Amino acid sequence: xxxxxxxxxxxxxxxxxxxxxxxxxxxxxxxxx
Amino acid sequence: xxxxxxxxxxxxxxxxxxxxxxxxxxxxxxxxxxxxxxxxxxxxxxxxxxxxxxxxxxxxxxxxxxxxxxxxxxxxxxxxxxxxxxxxxxxxxxxxxxxxxxxxxxxxxxxxxxxxxxxxxxxxxxxxxxxxxxxxxxxxxxxxxxxxxxxxxxxxxxxxxxxxxxxxxxxxxxxxxxxxxxxxxxxxxxxxxxxxxxxxxxxxxxxxxxxxxxxxxxxxxxxxxxxxxxxxxxxxxxxxxxxxxxxxxxx
Lengths: 33, 251
Known about the structure:
Distance between the termini of chain B: 11 Å
Order of helices and strands of chain A: HH
Number of helices of chain A: 2
Oligomer: heterodimer
Order of helices and strands of chain B: EHEHEHEHEHEHEHE
Radius of gyration of chain A: 10 Å
Largest sheet of chain B: 8 strands, parallel
């Protein structure tokens, strides 16, 4: 999970919409869950 | 990770050596015990995980169906477990169809993986039987998770190009040489793969590729930024790679 914490720090200035894609909706779409 | 929205951890492993045979565990004593959903919940209690995807754990190939069945049983009590990337012997070519058909009866199975990272022949995945086996995945609407090291990227790019009907997920950004702080030729090879439309990049497992003393955000940043630059925010997904990540860090 530390990769996730690092990601959050690296992407601190990204719009939330991009973070939602990375951390939620892309996986839901690709794996159909 | 305390986001306001629940995250999807797209790369979680569970294993139990008392149930299945995992040949590789003998050489990794730190991981040679059962890792179960209860352990995951404890390790990730500070993260807002809403869903998780189980990825196969290298059990004996003959136990792939048993592994998917056991994980489905776990999902009845760990309801965040929404998908399974099962093991399948795609190198069998047309003979993998029976295994895929059995897996497809399990609604939790969304994709398959046949770990390639240990193959010393970098063109291993381009053998004719492999290509035939990969193409069979489309019939079942299965994705394929590519677990490779960075030196295998050129061959995998050929593979992905030859199978446009299959959607691939590159695990762990192809394990770049973070420990050696090397970016090239990984950078160019990743860009060539990302030019193909039928592949996404899982940003996962990076901490275990780094020097344990230097696995924080500043050390991972060049690799993360490049992966995002190549794939864009529409084709990247996060995976925690628990419990393998514990080799580098407690979380």
